[in-house]
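Researcher: Predict the fold of ABC transporter substrate-binding protein.
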Amino acid sequence: MLSATLLAGLSPALASAASTAPAVTPAAVSAVAAPVDANAPTILVGFIIAQTNSPFAVTDPGRVAQIAARAVNDSGGIRGRRLVVDICDTKGQAAASLACARRLADAGAITLIGGNSGNGVDKILRARKMAAWFPMGSNQADIRNPLAFITALNSAGAAQGAYLGARRFGAHSAVYVSMLGNTTYQGTARFGYAQAGVSDVRIVEIPPGTTDFAPYVAKIKALHPDVWGGMLYPPEQQTLLVEAAAQQGVTIPFVSSNNVIENATLAALSKAPFPNSIALEKGEDARRFPTWAEYQRQLAKYDPQGAVKGPTDGSVTTDWLAVWTFAQIARELPTVTVDSFRERVSQDRHFAVDVLHPIDFTREAPVEGMPRQENIWAFAGHVAGGHEVVDDVTPFSAWEKTPVMPWTPAQVQAATGH
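Model: C-alpha cells for ABC transporter substrate-binding protein follow.
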C-alpha cells in the first residue's frame, strides 16, 4: 500500500496511476510544490560508500542518490529547504568509513545511508544518537545495532533467490556461487534452500577480480545440480559468470536475486540457453507500482545518457529509495533534526511504500542474530527480453515460507523462450 507520506512529491500523473494500481490506496497529492528557499539552511544526508580504489567500488548508488535529491529539490525540497546528499568515498578502507561517519556527523547530517557498522560506523551513530537509514545491512554489527534501520539485507537476497528458485524448478540439489570467503551470503543461501527442502547445496567460491570464469563453470557442470546461481560483486562479475555459462552450453536453471545485476546481466540472461528465476525486491513494474514508475521517470529526466549501468540492481534501487523515502518522511516532521528523524523511524510499525512489504522497525526476527528478518520480502520474477518481469505482485518471504507454486516445463518455456 502506498502511504500518503510517500505519495507526496509524486507527479500528478503518477498519483493518478496510484489510484488505479492494484493494492494501492489513492491519496491526495499537492499538484504544485513551492520553490526551494535558497536562503534557508540545507538538510544534509550522509552517504558512505566505496566509489574508487577497491575491487568492490561502485558508482551507480551515488548517482541514483543524487538523482533522488535533485527530484526532491525540484518538487519543493523539504518544507522549502534544499536536500543535500554528501557522498563520502571510503575507497574500500574500514578506517575511512569511520572517518566518513565522523565528518558527516560533524557537518550536521540528519542520518547516514550506506556504510556498515562493522567498520566502526556504529560508534559514531551511538555517540550522536543518529539513525542509519538503509545501511548496507550485510554485517552482523548492523543487524545488532538498534540505530540501523534496515529495509533490505543484501545477504537476504541470497536466501530469497535460493528459496524461490528451488521451489520454482522443483530442485533437490543446488550449487551456490559466491565471492571467496563470503560466508554471510553462503549461509543465507543455504538457509533459503533448506526452507525449500534442499539440503544438497555445494558452494563454488570465486576470488575477487576474476575474469576467466570457464574453470568455475566447468566445476558447476561437473557437480550436476538441479539449479545453480548466486551473487558476485561488483555486477560486472555476475555478467561475466552468466556469459561464461552460456558459452559452455549450460542448460541448468539459474537462480538468484536482483541484488547484483546490471543491464548487461539482463541481456546475458535473456540470451542464455537456460531458464532463470529472480527474486525481485522493488516491484520492478511501472504499470503496477507508482514508486517504480517515479524511479524510472527520474532516471529518464536526470540520467538521459544512461550513466547508471545497473538501474535495476537491488543495491542501486535501495540507495535511491533511501533518499526518496527519507525526504517523504522528513516532509512530515515539524522540524527535521537528528532526534526527530530517529524517533520517527524507531517507532514506525508500518513503514511501507507500494514497492515494500510493510516493515515493523520495532520488532526482531524469528531468525537468531538477524533482527527484523520477518520484514524481508521479495516478488517472484524472471528475466526475459532484457527486462525483469514481475510474475506475482504478492510479496513472499523465505523466512515465513510464503507459498510459491513451482513452474511446469511448459510455463518455463513460455516465460523464457527456452
